[in-house]
Every structure is written in C-alpha cells, then in structure tokens.
Design brief:
The structure holds 2 protein chains of 2 kinds.
Chain A: E1 4-7, E2 10-13, E3 19-25, E4 31-38, E5 42-49, E6 56-57, E7 64-68, E8 74-78, E9 87-94, E10 104-105, E11 109-113
Parallel strand pairs in A: 2-11
Antiparallel strand pairs in A: 1-3, 3-8, 4-5, 4-9, 5-6, 7-8, 9-10, 9-11
Chain B: E1 4-7, E2 10-14, E3 19-25, E4 31-37, E5 43-50, E6 55-58, E7 61-66, E8 71-76, E9 85-92, E10 99-101, E11 105-110
Classes of the chains: A mainly beta, B mainly beta.
Chain lengths: 114, 111
C-alpha cells in the first residue's frame, strides 16, 4: 500500500496563478483533510471531507477550494495564488468510522508563491 | 486557534538520555495523540491515549494524561539520533471530531 500520496512535491507560482494540489489514499478511509504548515504555527486545517460527497471548512479556508472527487481522491485548488499562501501543504486521511480520528499523512507539497 | 501547546519549543539532549515534552490543552477531550515529523516529511502517528486513561506505553515511549490539569507528557527513553524530529500533540474533543494540532516540540538528539 502506498498510503497517502501527494502531487506535486514542489511548486513555484507567480502571484495570481492557479493550481491544484492532488491527494489520493489507498486505505479505504472515509475522511480526508488538507492542512498547511507554517513555521511556528503547527498544522492548521484548511478543509476536510468527513465522507465522500461532503466537504467542510476548517480553520483557514479563505483562498482555497476543494473537491472530493471520489473516496480515494481529495484535491485542493488555489484559484489566485498569493504570497501568503507560501507554505507546506499536507493531505491526510483517517477512518472516522472506527471511532477515533487517527490520521495518516502524505509527504507534503512545498509551495512558493512569488 | 491551537488547542494544544507544546513545551518546550525546542530540546537538545545527548544520545542515551531521556527526553520529556509536554502538551497543554484548553477544552475537554475524547483522546490525545502524539505525532512525529521528521524533517521534510509528513507526520507519523505515535500513540493515542484516551481521556479515561492515565498512562500508556509503546516501546520506548511513555505518555501520561492528566485531564484535571488538561496536560499530557511524552517521554522518550534512551534516546537515539534517529529520534531527532518535531513532536506534535493533537486533541480530539469528541468521538469522531477532527483533530487539532499543537505547535510542536523540536527535539535534537546529539550522537
């Protein structure tokens, strides 16, 4: 099993450009998450999807959109990138139906917005 | 807002020593989890302790939970250079709720 995979690993954008970060999991998990990690801030939840067909805002959703394409895939889109979105983005999944939210993380995408 | 706050922010010890890091949180919880993050990698789940448990062990890891003080500690015994990483606590406020992560403790183990 590959676990949680993310593409791309690195990306440099110019202000105003758009891009989609891809995430897929092969653990048959119901729930998926997008976080951003900034120095000294820990992980902050951007959006999550408790189950296929549902998405909800997290702590810092502004400037982002998500799509839960199917049970395996959860993408994060930046419509018009801003320098404040320079960060490391992590996707995670969990089996909330098991009663606890133990999460499995992908390797991350390092995004720089110039 | 961060639910968990780790202390210290950074810790440097010699190989073979024990490392202790603490996590304080603000609201009642269903469980508390500890994760490790190696440099440039994603987080990896280490151990989960439920609100009705006081102590839990996993290999060289020992976690305690004091719900009256809203705090937890992670002890790594006989540390190794490979334990060098950042350690995060994460709280689940109710069953099935999403996790809230703290800001992490950076541990450096000197060979």
């Amino acid at each position: 099993n590959a676990g949680v995979t993310q593409t791309p690993k690195f990306q440099v954008l110019k202000t105003g450009q758009s891009m989609t970060l891809q995430c897929a999991q092969d653990m048959n998990h119901n729930s998926m998450y997008w976080y951003r990690q900034d120095p000294g801030m820990g992980l902050r939840l951007i959006y999550y999807s408790a189950s296929e067909g549902t998405t909800d805002k997290g702590e810092v959703p502004n400037g982002y959109n998500v799509s839960r394409l199917n049970k395996r895939e959860f993408s994060l889109r930046l419509e018009s990138a801003a320098p404040s979105q320079t960060s490391v983005y992590f996707c995670a999944s969990s089996d909330l139906g098991a009663g606890t939210d133990t999460q499995y993380f992908g390797p991350g995408t390092r995004l720089t917005v110039l | 807002s961060q639910q968990g706050e780790e202390d210290p922010q950074a810790l440097s010890i010699q190989e073979g020593e024990n490392a202790t890091m603490n996590c304080s949180y603000k609201t009642s919880i269903n469980n508390l989890q500890w994760y490790r993050q190696n440099s440039g990698r994603g987080l990896v789940h280490l151990i989960l302790i439920r609100s009705n448990e006081r102590e839990k062990h996993s290999g060289r890891l020992r976690v305690t939970l004091d719900t009256s003080k809203k705090s937890s500690s992670l002890l790594i015994t006989a540390s190794r250079a490979a334990d060098t990483a950042s350690y995060f606590c994460a709280t689940e406020r109710s069953s099935g709720d999403k996790l809230t992560f703290g800001t992490g403790t950076r541990l450096a183990v000197r060979p």
